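Quick check before the chapter quiz. The format below is the same one you will see on the exam, so make sure you can read both the input and the output lines.
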Amino acid sequence: MSEITPTTVHEAYAFACMRCGHGWEQAYEIEHHVDGSNNDYVIYKADGERVPSPLSRPTCMNCDGHLVRIMGSGRVSTVQKLLHNPQPTRPPIEDTGAGETAAATAARAGTQHHWHLADLLHPFHRK
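Here is the expected output.
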């Protein structure tokens, strides 16, 4: 019986811990195999080492929590890039009414809100 060469695909995922706010990304080589009984199975490798499936029960590398959101690759690096290289602040918006938004007040006062990954992930939290 001839052995079938495994099919390997490359996938990358972004992870964000909902417990501590830590975010990271990881690339995987995913090998699709067929055993002697014609059953499919998959092997995940990260940095050349065999690892458990990141989709089954991901663990935060910061706090060891398991409440981890899995996203498409690039999400965490994009947010981290924005956090480390903030855009210049906009000039304050003139208020024509009695109310003023917090962003306008902060801009007028010359202060800037520092966003954390947990702030940006707030829309993903379940209620």
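If your answer matched, good. Strands lie at 7-17, 23-34, 40-46, 49-51, 68-72.
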